[in-house]
Amino acid sequence: MVKKLVCLALVVPSVALASGPRPPAPLVVATATSAQAKSPAWGAIDNVADGRGWCPAKGDGVGEAITLTFDHPIPIKSLDLYLGTVKEVEITAGAQKLVASRMTTPLDGSAVSSLTLKIKSVTGGKKPTCLTGVRALSPSDWFYPFIYGVDAAAAKALPATATRLDAALRACDPAALTAAIAFPLVHEREHPGIDDNAEPGPTERYTYKSAAELVRACQTTTLASGYVDGTFDDALASALADMASPTAGQVKVGRWTFAFANGAWHLTAIDTIVSAMTVLPDGQRVLTEPKARGELYTPDARFHVVSEKTAVVDTAALATTLRAPDQIAKRMPENDVPGLARDGQTAWEAIDYPSDAVPYRVTYVLVRTPQGWRIAGGMFSVAQPNQAINAAGKAGKLSALPAIANDGDPSLQTAFKALLATGFDKDAVARKDLVAIGSGPGERTTTGAAIAKPWAATWTKHAALVGGISAHLAPSGTTGWTIADVALDKTGYKLPFRVMVVFDKTAASTWTVVEMHLAVPGAI
Fold first, then answer.
1. Tell me: the pLDDT tens digits for 510-522?
2. Is pTM beyond 0.70 here?
3. CATH architecture under which domain 26-144 falls
4. 152-273: which CATH architecture?
5. CB atoms within 10 A of CB 329
6. Where are the alpha helices (DSSP H) in 397-458?
């Protein structure tokens, strides 16, 4: 006998300047004194994007309440309330009782087993009374990822199931896939738009009736997790929640849809984004999407990424580039500083991508081709607070950077070593448009003289090369760039940096620095 399918919904933990580890995901049961069928009590659990919320079924809702009961007491620092048409709510959290009318409501941080929100007053009007959502902030400044619609045993089993499935998809293991998947399996492959303003590409739809059919597809397409790098990182904490009703019989984890039946989870559908990139062992990215290669990048484009935790590329950011050749030397907005090589065949630009998710700063190198300008390579990084990085470095708690191989043009490698040993060359010091991006927030220097002096004091003869130098020569032969790791001597410890330097040849055919980009890994 087949048991009724049940659904797990997990609300993804977002972060408000997190200062500690992610909290574990508590199970929560939502109840209400009354609720409309399409807006039940569980609809208010962090359900801001969906907008479903909880809508009481009695009168104007005043006096009605929802209660969230947790499987274990959790300390709550504050609540974010998405009040919708509710004007005031009375909050009961353990011994605390208060009335709130604003989005963010501080609590005392004590551990509570339940949370009750009672409607005190409403905004009025013709719209139904609805409380759109509530989020609870942990002491480490992560919002709790709530799990609901399933029991503790099923929730506990999901991470291991997802991990086994990820391994089975990577290995194209027919026996493991047969055990983990409910056939027929629907697979949708989405091709992202070529840039921020373009329409998305086509979506391919496949149906696999058996493990044998899936294995054949597995050997030719990326099915594992569907993330850009094909990695599966903590099935629960990184899940994208399916916000359907708990009786809908499915849960979406990442880009996988699971159903729970007969005491086990089974995959029923998967959708993937066709990755524009492949990751090399040293962390470089290689573009693999034909349309991206043809319209934005050179065929051998390479990118290094240093982010706050792992090397993950924001594909939307990658898709942004210059379109018109005559704009390279002219555009000088605040967040987009370009430079043009002496021979006009190569360009570089330093861009800040403001983002609430991953605010990348990027250095691109572009080359002129018969088809127009194309990006040939660059480096992405995330600004790291200097004080926190210094503390983590002193404690030996900075993330490791993948080793860089020693390859490419020897003359560029020599130029980079000279920069470490003797500092900026005289042409670089005199350059008015030299751009240097530091590793900390807001660190950007725009003249050679301004960067040369602090470099000489802090870096020259104080920074040692770690590993190899990846040296890239532009097709013109007169511009190139290096990416290498260095260890900077501090008082009693060393800080690891990944450094990208763009060089251009002077009239005397010597290499001179025209742009620099410094990055540090995030704290563990």
1. 999 999 999 998 8
2. no
3. Sandwich (2.60)
4. Roll (3.10)
5. 12
6. 410-422, 426-430, 448-458
